[in-house]
Amino acid sequence: MSEVSKTALLFRFPFPGPWGKELTEASHELARDIADEHGLVWKIWLEDRETGHAGGIYLFGDASAAEHYREKHERRLSAMGLTGVTANGFLVNTELSVLTMAGAALGQARASRRC
Q1: CA atoms within 13 Å, Cβ hemisphere of 36
Q2: Any residues with CB less than 8 A from the CB of 104 and at least 6 apart, and which?
Q3: Could you tell me the pTM of the whole model?
Q4: For 2, 54, 56, 67, which has the most beta carbons within 10 A of its beta carbon?
Q5: Distance of CA 34 to the CA centre of its chain
Q6: What is the DSSP code string of 50-61?
Q7: Per mean pLDDT, which range of 3-12, 52-61, 80-89 is the poorest?
Q8: Beta strand 7-14 with 86-91: parallel, antiparallel or unpaired?
Q9: In sequence order, what are the residues at sequence separation of 6 or more whose Cβ sits closer than 8 angstroms to the Cβ of residue 84?
């Protein structure tokens, strides 16, 4: 029986703001909806005020959940009037990720450091 690979999604899009605390306050309902998404392990919110871009890195338990969410979120962003959205999916290399200290996020023990 093979282990199901976790899948990461990277969204990036032009964004006019709000930023920082204002974005946090304006996005509570959206964040709660995302948190309830089937198969979501976590999301990291990204913002770059200097370039006028926002996005997120999402980790899903499997490729099917990630693809379902990608389609849903692309529709949501379009309905919000946001264009120029890029969304890329990646299989997670768990073994290498654990070596670079992502083990806790992936539900894996951290590898010991060699001296």
Answers
A1: 6
A2: 110
A3: 0.86
A4: 54
A5: 10
A6: TTTEEEEEEEES
A7: 3-12
A8: antiparallel
A9: 13, 14
